[in-house]
Each structure stands twice: as C-alpha cells, then as structure tokens.
C-alpha cells in the first residue's frame, strides 16, 4: 500500500513539474527573444544617398583593403600621372548624344537629383557624367585627348581643353545606339587612316570607351607592354557574354587601324544578321563573342583565368585584357565577393551606378587620394542608386 501511495504522489507531481518547466521557458523567452531575421529590402528600391557597407577582399593580398570604419584605404594603389612616352599619345573616343526632353518633364521636381551641393535634371545628369568622364581621364593621363562622336543634329556643346566634338551621320535613336556606336567607331577609324599615313613615326593610339567610366591609372603601358597587338578587348568569366564592349583599344599604326576596322566590320555584320532583337542592349557584346568564339583555333577556356593573352582572330592580333583590371564594375547586390583588384585601372559605372560616379569624383576632388576614393566605390557598390 505504501508503494501505491508513493506512486500516486509521483503521478500527481509530474503535471506540476511540467507546468513549472513550461513557465520557466516562457519567462526565459521574455528576456531572451529569438533573433529576428532581417527583412530584405525591396530589390526595386533605389537610394538617393550612398550606403556604405563592408568592403570585400580582406585577406587577399592583391585586393584593395579598406578600414572597417570610415573611408580609408589600408593599402595604397599605384596612381601615376607621369606620361609613359613622349612619342605616343592616347586618344579616348566615346559616342555620346542628347535626347530631347519636354520642358515639363525636365522641370518636374520629382526628376531632380541632388548630389553634393548640386541638383540635376535628366539633361544635367547626362552632361555631368560626360564632364566627369573627361575629368578622370585628364587627372590620370593629362596628355590624353578626348574625342566625342555624336549625331550632327545633337545640340552638344562642351568647351574644354583637350576635348574635340566629331559629328558622324547615323541613326542615334535609343533602340539603335549600340549598333550606331560600332558604325561610328568604323567611320572614325576610316578618317584616321589617311592622317596616319602622313604622320609616320608619331603614333596616336585610340581607346574606345563608354562615357560612364573612370580612368584611375595610366593606360599608356598597354601599347608598350604588348607591342604586337592590333586591337584589345576586355573579357570576364561569363559563358554567354564573356566580352564587354565598353573598352576597345586600337594601336594607332596603319596596320592596327586597318585590322581593327576590318574586325569591327565583321562584328557589325554579325550584329545585323544575328542579334538585331538585342539592338538596344547587349547585341554588340553578343556579336563580339560570336566573332571571337567562332574562330576555329580559339579556346573559350581562356576566359576563365584573369590573365592577358593574344590571339589571331581573322587576321587581327587581338589582345584580351581582364575586366577585373581594365573594366571593373562596382557590384550591385551580392557580386564581387573578392573585392577590387589592387591594380585596377578602369572603373565602369554601368547602369544605375551613375550617381556613384559623381559621388566618387566629388570625393576625389576634395581628398586627392585615389586609393581612398576606390574604397568609397568598393564600400558603396552594393546599393542601387537613383540614376
């Protein structure tokens, strides 16, 4: 009987123990709530100010390292303003045109964007980007000239030393601008052939670029370190779009210009025959990749390693330069885990990164420190901006 009595007392205590344990757990949760998962931002939202975040690349010896707090480079990049050669000049060539906007659209306060102490309309933004494109070139390569290829009907007015406006007839509508860009490059090279024949011994090399790039180091050594190429392209490890058309270098000899012209004519032919559905964007890059990859001796696996190499493509000696150095793009979202290469020479502010280009120049103008400016780009390159 005593055994049964003890057993009954035990059965009575079990619910009580369970209740006390539950009460303790609830009490503990009140003091130590479970961590809340961060709510992801709307992927379509854009910011009207810089949002600094962690700088990837820590632990990699060949990557830019930035201070965890503030905007300060822990290792310095090389930035030289000394001309590489007194005999050779480098001309930067870009295609740029203005599109008509109604006064109502341009004056609408919702369309104004403020960067620093300045507010920009849509037209102002375009011109500001173009001027900063020139600013970076003249800071990094003060002996270089800028040539702007444009629609003769475009009311483009820019009065700056070392800048030339070169009108070329063509179709500059938004839907055909990438196609027209190749045609403008070809027309410009044709205009150079006769002049080169008259100036033997004095080379003027050409770098065709988008107008949303920042040159942050001297690019003249390309033409000296790789003396045997006719034109140069930039590549990345991307199966479908390994080549970026925002940077094309052409050696300024007669042979270099003729072979570069023939190469671009082949790209134009492929563009028109295969990729007109992508004429507004990407068609030129797809055509570039097709011309290169369709060459029988070319091995696409070379695009998987960020090392420069030269290949003969249709009679032209083509130098392939890694985008990581000569066409680096600030990340949007979770890209570029390995950060910015320490020897980066060109930063490409594609798409909505235009505001970051203006912010970067403002920062550089105030600090005159290219390494710190690159940290600003690296730490703020994870946000979609309002351009």
List the helices and strands and how they pair.
Blueprint: H1 2-31, E1 89-95, H2 103-107, E2 113-115, E3 118-120, H3 122-140, E4 145-150, E5 163-167, H4 177-198, E6 204-209, E7 213-215, H5 221-225, E8 231-235, E9 243-250, H6 254-274, H7 283-293, E10 309-313, E11 316-322, H8 323-326, E12 346-348, H9 354-367, H10 370-380
Parallel strand pairs: 1-4, 1-6, 4-5, 8-11
Antiparallel strand pairs: 2-3, 6-9, 7-12, 8-9, 10-11
Description:
Helix content is 37%, strand content 16%. The chain contains ten helices and twelve strands. It has a domain at 89-327: Spore Coat Polysaccharide Biosynthesis Protein SpsA, Chain A (Alpha-Beta Complex), CATH 3.90.550.10. Strand 8 and strand 9 (243-250) form a beta hairpin. It has 387 residues and is of the alpha/beta class. Mean pLDDT is 84; it is low at 16-41. 39% of the residues are buried. The longest helix is centred in the N-terminal third of the chain and has 30 residues, at 2-31.
* CATH topology category name of the domain at 89-327: Spore Coat Polysaccharide Biosynthesis Protein SpsA, Chain A
Terminal Cα span: 87 Å
Radius of gyration: 28 Å
Describe the largest sheet.
8 strands, mixed
Structural key phrases:
387 residues; alpha/beta; Spore Coat Polysaccharide Biosynthesis Protein SpsA, Chain A; eight-stranded mixed beta sheet
Quick rundown:
The chain is α/β, with parallel strands linked by helices.
